[in-house]
């Protein structure tokens, strides 16, 4: 689906998350929300900036820091991506009740918490 918009998951996700967080987000904050390391995000931001989808600006409070802003082209792309993703979600979840979805999300949250505890315990979280 993303290929139709000449995007990959790696490039689309930072744009969508930036749109949700709002302009003026620091690169480190976006990296945390996207779930990637800072250097990996820098490469993605370089590509997205080169494509004219976002821009870096100096933070007025700290000139050492750059903030990220969607360009008009980036906003338009996120709008199209959101529409396509909404349609996909509707198709995928058409036969799933709200109760079933809530149950699934509860289970996923429990698994995520357990994984965090397991990794925090220093066992490496690897499979047996």
From TrEMBL:
Domain HTH marR-type: 1-113
Lineage of the species this protein comes from: Bacteria, Pseudomonadati, Pseudomonadota, Alphaproteobacteria, Rhodospirillales
Domain of life per record: Bacteria
Keyword DNA repair: no
Protein's recorded name: MarR family transcriptional regulator for hemolysin
Record's keyword terms, sorted: DNA-binding, Transcription, Transcription regulation
Molecular function per GO: DNA binding; DNA-binding transcription factor activity
The keyword Isomerase belongs to this UniProt entry's keyword annotation: no
GO biological process terms on file: response to stress
Pfam families per UniProt: MarR_2
